[in-house]
Amino acid sequence: MRIDLIALDLDGTLLNAADHISDRNGRALSRALERGVRVVLVTGRGVDLPIRISAELGLNLPVICCHGALTKDFGANRTLVHLPLPLAYAKPMVEYAEKNGLSIAIYAEEMFWRLEGSRVFMDDMRGPTWREARTFTDVLHEAPTFIRFMGEASVRAMQREFGDWPLNFRYETWQEFVECAVLNREASKRNALARLCADFQVSPEHVLAVGDSRNDVPMLRWAGIGVAMGNAPREVKEAVRYVTAGNDDDGVAMAIERFVLGMQQKRPA
Q1: Nearest 5 degrees, angle CA 100-CA 103-CA 105?
Q2: Could you give the CA distance from residue 48 to residue 136 in angstroms, rounded to a whole number?
Q3: Which domains does the chain have, with CATH numbers?
Q4: Per residue in 24-35, pLDDT tens?
Q5: C-alpha span between 269 and 267 (Å, rounded)
Q6: Cα separation of the two ends of the chain
Q7: Alpha carbon 137 to chain centroid, angstroms
Q8: Per-residue pLDDT averaged across 200-207, rounded?
Q9: Enclosing H/E stretch for 77
Q10: Is the distance from CB of 69 to CB of 108 less than 8 angstroms?
Q11: Which run of H or E residues covers position 39?
Q12: Could you tell me which residues are beta bridge partners of residue 228?
């Protein structure tokens, strides 16, 4: 099957455990681009990292960020699609979280916001794309892109109070850390990728998608060829036909070499 477009998740997929792109992954992407194949990054992250990586790799499509809630043409610095979390839902959730001391972060105006003195769960929360606010009232001037509930206690409280609301809840677990991103109900990686492919007149059967997390599964199943990473949870691997090696073992390169470049690969054990 001819592949015209490659869609790649970042964390746990294109990036290894050190948040780097391996030489083999980089070479495989370069060869795919030379053949005229389009490549898009599809990530739960904000815009900063995927834009930087896309520019460094010379990728040729907008980036899909924020679990599919935001698609941005980084070359023209233009937002193509933004599906924010409506204020009617965001404000009571944030007010409840602040009143009850829940750990949350808000992504608004392409920045992450947390309260002054709040817990820092990960090193990147100290990075340049994070800001602190005295109160979230100072931040919620307009509908945010999404809200992150961080830590098991905060996630459970959110589920108890708001779990039946008509929103998109994206749960993730990294070792002992649990979080849930709350988004517009129409926001998803699968929907954003489908819109982008329609814009470029690329049909699903000519798409290769690679990912490792639960929120990647609809995208992987929509694509003509969906590939789960070897480091993905079992339910992700069982949801698709193909599994490649892990993100520390050039799994993305192996998928591209097999399905785009036509190179013979041994099936991972």
Answers
A1: 120
A2: 22
A3: 5-82+187-259 (3.40.50.1000), 87-183 (3.30.1240.10)
A4: 999 999 999 999
A5: 6
A6: 24
A7: 27
A8: 97
A9: none
A10: no
A11: strand 38-41
A12: 211, 243
